[in-house]
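Good day; I would like, with your permission, to put a structural problem before you. The record follows directly beneath this note:
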Amino acid sequence: MSNNLPASYKEAADELQEIVDLLKDSQVDVDVLTDKVKRACQLVIFCKERLRMADSEIEAALKMIDDVEKNTPIAPVEAVSDLEPF
């Protein structure tokens, strides 16, 4: 069983798919099965952590946008009405 972490979420997801495909074969040796299930657990943990990190980064970016919008004065209606249409 490989303890190396994948380089990316996609790489982990691809490896998980390979394991799922292998496990669908009812002729898998029990020792191989055990190792593959352990590896799948590692990959699931890795993927969940990557998703949590991505969620945190997205939340931070959205908060930054909200903060900028809150600190940016909105043009008065009169100023907007002076704009030329597209």
Q: What stands out?
A: The two ends are 61 Å apart (CA to CA).
